[in-house]
Amino acid sequence: MLKKRKLQLKGNKSIFRMVMLFVVLGLLQNTFAQENDNKVLITIGGDKITVAEFMNVYQKNNVKGEVLDKKSLEDYLDLYINFKLKVKEAEDIGLDTVKAFIDELKGYRKQLAQPYFIDEEVTEELLKEAYQRKLIDIRASHILIKIDQNATPADTLEAYNKILEVKERLSNGEDFGELAIELSDDPTAKDMEAIPGQRPFRKGNSGDLGYFTVFDMLYPFEEGTYNTNLGEVSEIIRTKYGYHLIKVTDIKEAMGIVQIAHIYIAMPKDASPEDSLNTKNKIYKIYTELLDSASFEDMVKKYSEDKGSVEKGGVLTKFGVSRMVPEFIVSISDLSEPDDISEPILTSYGWHILKLINKKKPGTFDEEKNALNQRLVKDARSYKSKESIINKSKKEFEFKEYPKAKIELLAVVDSTILVNKWNVEKAKDLNKALFKLENNKYTQFDFAKYLAANQKGKHTETVEVYFNNAYNNFVNKSCTDYFDSHLEEKYPDFKLLMKEYRDGILLFELTDQKVWSKAIKDTVGLNAFYKEDKINYLWDKRLHASIYTVKEPEITGELRQQINKYSLLFLTDSITFSFDGNKKVFKCLSPDDILNKYNNDSVINISIETDIFSKGDNYFIDNINWEEGISDNSESDIDNSITFVYVYQLIKPEPKSLDEAKGLITADYQTYLEKEWIKSLKEKYPVIINESVLELINN
Q1: How many domains would you assign to the chain?
Q2: Above 60 in pLDDT, residue 129?
Q3: 249, 439, 528, 690: most buried, per Cβ within 10 A?
Q4: Domain assignment present for 635
Q5: Which CATH number belongs to the domain containing residue 146 in this structure?
Q6: Pair 440, 454: CB distance under 8 Å
């Protein structure tokens, strides 16, 4: 046993030594890499480029994880040098100072910076929260006490005391719906009396909002609802409309997106009890017929009073849970399969029978994530993510406020600010710091200028409320701008990405001037280049020929005889003969003459395609002997048609004209221009490669 333990110990020591060897080698390798990163690999016109700068671009543009290949590395080095030469030239001639370039780069930077202003952890939490809520439909009622979001503290306190009184009465057992009718500032809670000639009577909803799901309500209202248990009343909720108390009256599994058809029987205006009974009897008679196998579509056409859907078989537009009266939602939850039919249901509009067309329930989180994110970025809750970045920036950049300076500035801001007439000169002598970010001061006058520049419209809130809201916005903007100005410093990857975009825009602009557009516009240079190298743009052997397709095989023999007899005359319109000094003109037989002879308006017996063909242009051309004269027949297996070719001339290889090969010639001319340009740049900006450093990388 002791011997076995010694052997195990010896084995463990060997493993330990091996592990330590790998650790040491790894440390040595990292140290070696760090030492080499700062070594100069290339000098271009005096500008030094380190190993780290080159390798970052190389590794980004090549498959990561591949073994470093000497040839591919050196090939890429040549491309990189050419790239840097062009960028240096662009800088030297001032392309990076042109307004169009600066504006374009700013636009790209704004797009590239956006992800850094989003707290991914917060966003992911919000997405998961939204998904969980999407799986649930909630029905709720509310009582609203209205108060403007910019109301004075006194008005706000008065509204808060009112909602507290409502909450107290609810806790004493009073009915939620009755209190909503009595006290809610939501006008839909109460009955709306009819005004003859203007509006009909509308029954109040006693605060009932029907069913809804995530993103259907303001976020604070949604929060209050989803955090309240079934049958209970929420804590007091504040939204931009005022204070709310919310009672959750039903919680259901998400309906999703639904399409239904319905049969609708309207309730007569000012219906008497007898009218109501007759309407009910009518809908139940229809329901009985449906149960006896009557066609739903036939019943729609025969009885439904919804003119907009009758012609569609009663089918309504697809809808979500918040887009339909709650009675529909309750009834739909009992329909599980397409073509299921509901019992008659009564709504404020009349009686309905529903037929399910289809339901699309929410998918998995991964399936719904993109759609949820699109809603999220447009929703107020997305500010949580931005707020997180602002708070992190305040902490990182040591944000510090000076409240007394803020009070001093408020003293010179009067009510003219509420009507867009405040003059910044009133604050010209105020230059104390309002707040700091690191060592950067933001003064009273800085904020005063912001106030003056952002005066818009008329406002009902007090000067102090307006001032404080504007101050918070100014602080947030200043923190965001300060964070933005330090992105390159904080995030090396972003700095490198911005450099790539900057250099790429410069490269594109200058290459367009020197190569791409120049090759297109320089017709003289292009023509000279073509004449010098036209032998490189040859046609292969070609045939001047006509392809005949005959749909009536019995006329093929006669047609071939005529072609053999007259084919030499197909290449011209007429021939002139002279006999003893007398000239006589003969009109020649053409393919059109043959077409006219064998075809008419209603029947096409022959088709002819005449052209100059190269190999690969046509199946029949490729499959005949390339010699002058008429080919053998080729019979189609599909429609029994006959095809043959008459070759007028075998054309030997010859140069293409400039127009015939312009695309290829232009591309070659661009390559030529670029080579010449690179040659001149290397003369202007000498390139020195540190071979010893390159060898270290290769090894």
Answers
A1: 5
A2: yes
A3: 249
A4: yes
A5: 3.10.50.40
A6: no
**pLDDT, tens only, 530-562:** 999 889 999 999 999 999 999 988 889 988 888
Q: Considering only CA atoms, which of 342, 339, 368 is closest in space to residue 353?
A: 342
Asked if 112 and 501 touch (Cβ cutoff 8 Å), the reply is yes
Structure-derived torsion over alpha carbons of residues 511, 515, 520, 522, reported in degrees to the nearest 10: 130
Residue 535 DSSP code: G
Residues in the chain: 699
Give the rounded distance of the alpha carbon of 100 from its chain centre: 26
Q: What is the band of 34 on the pLDDT scale with cuts at 50, 70, 90?
A: low
**Whole-angstrom distance, CA of residue 221 vs CA of residue 231:** 17
Q: What does DSSP assign to residue 195?
A: B
Looking at the DSSP assignment, which residues form a beta bridge with residue 202?
192
Q: Position of tokens 């439909």?
A: 137
Q: Tell me how far CA of residue 216 lies from CA of 149, 225, 376, 506, 681, in angstroms.
A: 20, 12, 12, 47, 62
User: Is 306 found in the same domain as 345?
Assistant: yes
- Nearest residue to 496 via CA among 95, 56, 86, 78: 56
CB 285 within 8 A of CB 277: no
CB atoms within 10 A of CB 196: 6
Q: When comparing pLDDT for 569 and 229, which is higher?
A: 229
Instruction: Say whether both 271 and 354 belong to one domain.
Output: yes
Average pLDDT (54-81) is 77
pLDDT in tens, 350-385: 999 999 999 999 999 999 999 999 999 999 999 999
Judge contact between 81 and 687, C-beta under 8 A: yes
